[in-house]
Structure formats: C-alpha cells, structure tokens
Amino acid sequence: MGVSNYLIRRMTVRDLDEVMAIEAQVFSLPWSKQSYMGELKNQFATYLVCDKEAEVAGYVGIWVVFEEAHITNVAVAPKWQGQGLGRVLMEEAEKVARSKNALRILLEVRPSNHAALSLYKSLGYMETGRRKEYYSDNGEDAIVMTKLLF
Ligand SMILES: CC(C)(COP(=O)(O)OP(=O)(O)OC[C@H]1O[C@@H](n2cnc3c(N)ncnc32)[C@H](O)[C@@H]1OP(=O)(O)O)[C@@H](O)C(=O)NCCC(=O)NCCS
C-alpha cells in the first residue's frame, strides 16, 4: 500500500510548535524546542518534515559527518502512523546520506520499540551493537543498527 498526497521538505523554525506536539505524544524523552533550534543551525544536520493535509505529519533528522551518517530522530504523529510515512521519511534521509557520500547510516533504537525495529529491519538495517543503559528514563539499552550504503 503506497501512501500518497504528502510533501517532503526541509524543517524550519516555523514547524517547531507542531514538531514539539508530536515529540510530546510519541517520545518518553522528548527533545526541547531549543535542541531543535540548535539542530536547524547545525551544518552537519538535515531535518525533513512530511506534510499531510497542510499539517506536519512526521519528521526525520540525519547527521552526515564524512563517511558516517546518523539518524537522530524519526517520528510520525499518531493519527498518521501505519500509512507508510515512516518508511518514506527513512528513505528520504537515506537519499540525503547518499547525496553526501556517506558509506553507512547508524541509529539507536529501544529493544521494546517493535514498530521502529521492524521498520529499520525491513529497510536493511542490521543490529551491530548495544549501548548499555542508554535511555535515562528507564535504563533501557539501545540497540545500534547499521545500514551499509555500498
Ligand atoms: C516508528 C514510526 C516512525 C513508524 O512510522 P509509521 O509511519 O507508523 O510506519 P510505516 O507505516 O511507514 O510502516 C513501515 C514499517 O514499520 C513497521 N511498523 C510500523 N508500525 C508498526 C507496528 N505498530 N507494529 C509493528 N511494525 C510496525 C512495519 O515493518 C511497517 O512495514 P509494513 O507496513 O510493510 O508492515 C512510528 O511508529 C513512530 O513515530 N513511533 C514513535 C516514535 C519512534 O518510536 N521513533 C523511532 C525512535 S528509534
């Protein structure tokens, strides 16, 4: 099932109130508006949003530093989940990494986050490590996943 009628574009400061609302709904450790303001000025970072029906439905962030890219965040608003937008956002982030000649993309994910794990596996990410007690809210480990781009 392909999702339609969406627009992928760069995130701007004007999006941050909507981004904050989604952060609060989907993450137990939401980032602050200040963190996003800093990220939007970060020369290594690219933040994309997906618009649906004139609202921000989801977003993704990626850092590319030389050959290594890192997904910093990906989220889809609950009302838009399960329609393929998460996959679209991850594919768009991968295009950014490839366009900047990255050779691999890394990300961290909670072992309990079955939806995200399933998405990443289906896109070709593989478990390459663990970070012990990475998440400060519940002490959960992070699974490190990597996708090679060559
Ligand atoms: C993870 C997330 C971004 C996925 O976005 P989405 O738009 O709902 O996902 P999609 O509709 O594109 O689904 C893509 C794949 O993800 C997986 N997936 C999505 N929702 C799932 C669910 N509830 N259970 C299991 N797998 C799921 C499936 O593999 C799916 O592929 P399929 O449709 O071919 O089965 C979204 O659930 C979300 O924002 N979660 C909260 C924030 C978060 O956890 N971010 C990741 C932090 S590491």
**CATH third-level topology:** Aminopeptidase
Distance between the termini: 28 Å
Mean pLDDT: 97
Element order, helices and strands? EHHEEEHEHEE
Proper CATH architecture: 3-Layer(aba) Sandwich
Q: Briefly, what CATH class?
A: Alpha Beta
Please summarize what this structure is.
This protein has 150 residues and is an alpha+beta fold. It has helices at 16-26, 33-41, 85-99, 114-122, and strands at residues 6-10, 45-52, 55-65, 68-76, 104-109, 126-131, 142-148.
List keywords for this structure.
alpha+beta, Aminopeptidase, 35% strand, binds coenzyme A
What does this structure look like?
This protein is α+β, with helices and mostly antiparallel strands and 150 residues long. The protein has a single domain (6-148), classed as 3-Layer(aba) Sandwich (Aminopeptidase), CATH 3.40.630.30. It is 29% helix and 35% strand. The protein is built from four helices and seven strands; from the N terminus they run E-H-H-E-E-E-H-E-H-E-E. A seven-stranded mixed sheet has the order 1-2-3-4-5-7-6, with helices on both faces. Strand 2 (45-52) and strand 3 (55-65) form a beta hairpin. The longest helix has 15 residues, at 85-99. It is globular, with a radius of gyration of 15 Å. It starts with 5 loop residues before the first strand and ends with a strand. The model has no long low-confidence stretch (mean pLDDT 97). The protein binds coenzyme A (COA). Coenzyme A (COA) binds at residues 26, 74-76, 81-87, 109, 113-116, 118-119, 122. Residues 26, 74-76, 81-87, 109, 113-116, 118-119, 122 line the site of coenzyme A.
